[in-house]
Amino acid sequence: MTSVTDVRELKLDGHVGFDSLPDQLVNRSVQQGFCFNIMCIGETGLGKSTLIDTLFNTRFESDSCSHKLAKVGIRASTCDLIESNVQLKLTVIDTQGYGDQINKEDSYKPIVDYINDQFEKYLQEELKIQRNMFAFHDTRAHVCIYFISPSGHGLKALDLVTLKKLDSKVNIIPLIAKSDTVSKNELHKFKIKIMSELVSNGIQIYQFPTDDENVAEMNSQMNGHLPFAVVGSTEEIKSGTKTVRGRQYPWGIAQVDNETHCDFVKLREMILRTNLEDLRESTHTRHYELYRRCRLQEMGFVDSTSDKSFSLQETFEAKRQQHLKELQTKEEEMRQKFVVRVKEKESELKQNEKDLHMRFDGVKKELAEERQKLDEKKRILEEDMSNFQRRKEAVRQAQDAQHSASLKGKKK
């Protein structure tokens, strides 16, 4: 084996042209376009659809969700957005009916299954012999915006369970929804309590990166503002001489784009303007790589070492033989179970046949005894009838004799 220990740095005598490589990459990326997938998790009525409309300053078509869904449903809608010749294929993933069930124990499972399914689709595309990753529509969730109810009492058990199940699968950014319903002092205490509960339960949320010196200071400050307290609204309201987006109340207007009213501007700045590419990259390099490594290990793949070379054919053949052995074992188990079931059924049928014969013999014997009794009664009845006829005949003869004697007496 050969290894490179020293790399020399040479000076160019003139202009070559590869300094245009960044421009080439930018132009190619702009031509291909970008994709970004946002998953919104939160109870019905917390303003998930409204916030997405506010975030992208447009109106997405979304149907209102009922509170009577039997289980959590996943609804993904994709649309194309264009801003300054930059094309973005945006997919919004909504969790309909989340937290509405009486039994909330398995509310997180459809969400986890959906995320794993998207990872699996991407992995299957990678494993193809002829693959086209540029044309493949990447549906992996790049960020999960988790909406927290503004109760002021901390996170619910459902929130903690779901966040714990998702922190290794997606970038989580927690939000306090409808923060205009909570006072500033209560909001500050609520934020501290939420972060304390996340840390004590070992839940890892997305941290804005600080390794880039251009945005390190700003991202570090924004990490201290988590969870963001936001207000969503696309309604335009007249405020003095200006028209602002916000919510009208008797006491005034809660402005969406006013940083003293809520953290919406901070959220938009962090997700879309500063860290969108980092969200995409961390999804691929962290969450997807973890899923990919576990899946390949399940399939029997291992990394090559210096002592033993990696052979895809050997791994496939070993996995195939193992699978065939498992099938043979299952087939033999099913055959044995079938034989046992057949024997049990035969024994049951024989016992039922024996019982039927015994019942038939019993009924036959009872019928014979009943017939014998009936014959005896018939014989007795016939004897009685015969005796009755003899007595009747004797009485008739006696009456006739008496009548004849009375007639003779009269003649004399």
SSE topology sketch:
Layout (H helix, E strand, L loop, with lengths): L20 H12 L1 E8 L6 H9 L16 E11 L2 E11 L12 H18 L16 E6 L8 H10 L5 E5 L7 H17 L15 H8 L4 E2 L6 E4 L2 E8 L2 E4 L8 H11 L1 H23 L13 H100 L1
Helix pairs in contact: 7-8
Question: How would you characterize this protein structure?
Answer:
It is a single chain. The chain has helices spanning 21-32, 48-56, 109-126, 157-166, 184-200, 216-223, 264-274, 276-298, 312-411; strands spanning 34-41, 73-83, 86-96, 143-148, 172-176, 228-229, 236-239, 242-249, 252-255. The chain is an alpha/beta fold. Helices cover 50% and strands 14% of the residues. A hairpin with a 2-residue loop joins strand 7 (236-239) and strand 8. Helix 7 crosses helix 8 (276-298).
Could you say which overall geometry the principal axes of the C-alpha atoms support?
elongated
For the largest sheet, list the strands in their spatial order.
2-3-1-4-5-6
Rg on CA atoms, Å: 45 Å
Biggest sheet statistics: 6 strands, mixed
Structural class: alpha/beta
What amount of the residues lies in strands?
5-15%
Task: Describe the structure concisely for a colleague.
The protein has helices at 21-32, 48-56, 109-126, 157-166, 184-200, 216-223, 264-274, 276-298, 312-411; strands at 34-41, 73-83, 86-96, 143-148, 172-176, 228-229, 236-239, 242-249, 252-255. It is of the alpha/beta class and 412 residues long.
Features:
single chain; 412 residues; alpha/beta; 6-stranded mixed beta sheet; 3-stranded antiparallel beta sheet; 9 helices
